[in-house]
Input
Amino acid sequence: MDLTGHVVIVTGSSSGIGEAVARRLAATGARIVVNSASSVAAGERLAEELGEACYVQGDISAPGTAHALVEAARERWGRLDGLVNNAAVTADVPLADIDAVTVDHWNRVLGVNVVGTFLVSQAALPLLREAEDGWILNITSIAGIRQTGSSLPYAVSKAAVDHLTTLLAKHAGGGVRVNAVAPGLVATPWTETWDQVKEGVTAMAPLHRVATPEDIADACVGIIGARYATGQTLLVDGGLGLVL
Ligand SMILES: NC(=O)c1ccc[n+]([C@@H]2O[C@H](COP(=O)([O-])OP(=O)(O)OC[C@H]3O[C@@H](n4cnc5c(N)ncnc54)[C@H](OP(=O)(O)O)[C@@H]3O)[C@@H](O)[C@H]2O)c1
Output
């Protein structure tokens, strides 16, 4: 894939999957708007390393962040071709512990994962419609498809973003394609301490390993390059969903 001259926003790109996707897209020639909520030094470092890139600090659910991300692309390069909605949070409550889930957990997780993803997409769409081949790619999760995940609000939020993907694909207009990649378990800072879960996935999944962020970047590049696909969620889980 050759994205020379294209401009792409990758939310939550200071580490993990977002960083791997930003690096991969930059390697194909894209200019990247890097973003994170609080890891400013890591985000600035990545933008500097990528060269044709800039960094925008902001929580995607906070007022003004969506606009700031899109304006960074417009001011610097005058265009926007793609948006990777990768930033997300979970609640520190085990999936099965229904009694422990609070309104604050719901508000935070849905606020970032669903509302934040929507707000950045909404702000990006006018420029994406002007692009020759504009696209949005949402990073969801196996947790939105199977009865698994790091918390109940998180799993529900990812199912919501899969449905948002279909609705945006239907109504975005301007030929903008909207798809999602739903990873299984990926070795990132988020899952750094999940040794037992990793052992379980390695034993159960038909591909017998946990994903690397680069595995997910491969899938992202594949679906970004699939120019006649829209409204789809691609499950990239080493086959884990087949045995859950
Ligand atoms: N790792 C997995 O096993 C796995 C599996 C399925 C799906 N996913 C999905 O993959 C995506 C990335 O996860 P990861 O494992 O790569 O996590 P990660 O390494 O913890 O990275 C998360 C990134 O998102 C940023 N972020 C978090 N909240 C944000 C917010 N409100 N606004 C803007 N940026 C925010 C973080 O920056 P700050 O440090 O500044 O907050 C960081 O750059 C998420 O959507 C996650 O749900 C991960």
In short: The pocket of NAP is lined by residues 11-18, 35-39, 59-61, 86-89, 112, 116, 139, 141, 183, 185-186, 188-191 (CB under 6 Å). The mean pLDDT is 98.
